[in-house]
Write a structure and sequence with these properties.
The strands form three sheets. Strands 1-6 form a two-stranded antiparallel ribbon. A two-stranded antiparallel sheet has the order 2-3. The longest helix is centred in the C-terminal third of the chain and has 19 residues. The chain starts with a helix and ends with a helix. By secondary structure, the chain is of the alpha+beta class. The protein is elongated.
C-alpha cells in the first residue's frame, strides 16, 4: 500500500438551496414522493416526500428542507433568524424528524424518512427534486472531499511499508537498521 492510496477521497453530494427563488409550488415534494413510491412513480403523496417546503405565505417565506436524521427528543433551539428582512424560525431550516412536528414520517407506519439523494442504479444525473424545481431554487452539486487518514489506516500503511521492506531486505537487516537508528536518538 502506498501513501497515495491511504488519502481518503469521497464524492460529497449536495443540494444548494436559494430560498429567495422558491415559490412554494411544492413540485419538489411531489417528485420526491413519486420517485420513492413502490412501485416507482405509481403514486404521488407529498406526505411521503423526503423534502418539505416550510411555507409562511403571510410573510412570503418558503424554505425547502430535506429530511435528515431522526431524533427521538426535541431540541431546545428556538432561535429566530432574520434574513433579508424576513424572520425565520430555527425549525424552518432543520431537517430532523422529531416529536415537535410531523414532518418526515411515513404516514402509515410512522417510521422516519430520510433523503437518500435519490440513490438508484443507474445513478441519476440529478435528484428528482432538483429536476422538478423549475424556478431554480435547488441546484445539485458534487464535490470531491479529502480527509486525513484515520489511525487504523495509518497503522495499515505502516504495516504495509514494513512488510515490503522485510520482503526487500530481510527481517534481520531491517531489525539491525532500526536498532542503529534508535541508538542514534
Ligand atoms: S434528493 Fe431525492 S430523496 Fe432527497 S429530497 Fe430530493 S428527491 Fe427526495
Ligand atoms: S420545486 Fe423549487 S420552487 Fe417549488 S417549492 Fe420546491 S424548492 Fe420551492
Amino acid at each position: 500500500m502506498t501513501a497515495s492510496t491511504v488519502v481518503a477521497k469521497k464524492i460529497v453530494k449536495e443540494i444548494k438551496v436559494e430560498i429567495d427563488k422558491c415559490t412554494g409550488c411544492r413540485a419538489c415534494e411531489m417528485a420526491c414522493s413519486a420517485f420513492h413510491a413502490r412501485p416507482r412513480f405509481s403514486s404521488i403523496n407529498p406526505a411521503r416526500a423526503r423534502i418539505r417546503v416550510v411555507v409562511d405565505e403571510i410573510n412570503d417565506e418558503y424554505v425547502p428542507i430535506r429530511a435528515g436524521d431522526y431524533t427521538p427528543s426535541e431540541c431546545n433551539g428556538r432561535h429566530i433568524y432574520k434574513i433579508g428582512g424576513k424572520e425565520y424560525s430555527e425549525c424552518s431550516f432543520c431537517g430532523a424528524s422529531c416529536p415537535s412536528r410531523d414532518y418526515f414520517r411515513e404516514p402509515d407506519s410512522g417510521l422516519p424518512l430520510k433523503c437518500d439523494m435519490c440513490e438508484s442504479i443507474p445513478p441519476l444525473e440529478k435528484p428528482w427534486c432538483v429536476q422538478a424545481c423549475l424556478p431554480g431554487a435547488l441546484t445539485y452539486i458534487e464535490r470531491e472531499e479529502t480527509r486525513e487518514p484515520r489511525p487504523q489506516e495509518k497503522r495499515a500503511e505502516l504495516e504495509g511499508g514494513l512488510e515490503s521492506l522485510v520482503n526487500k531486505f530481510g527481517q534481520d537487516a531491517l531489525i539491525e537498521a532500526l536498532s542503529k537508528m534508535t541508538k542514534g536518538h
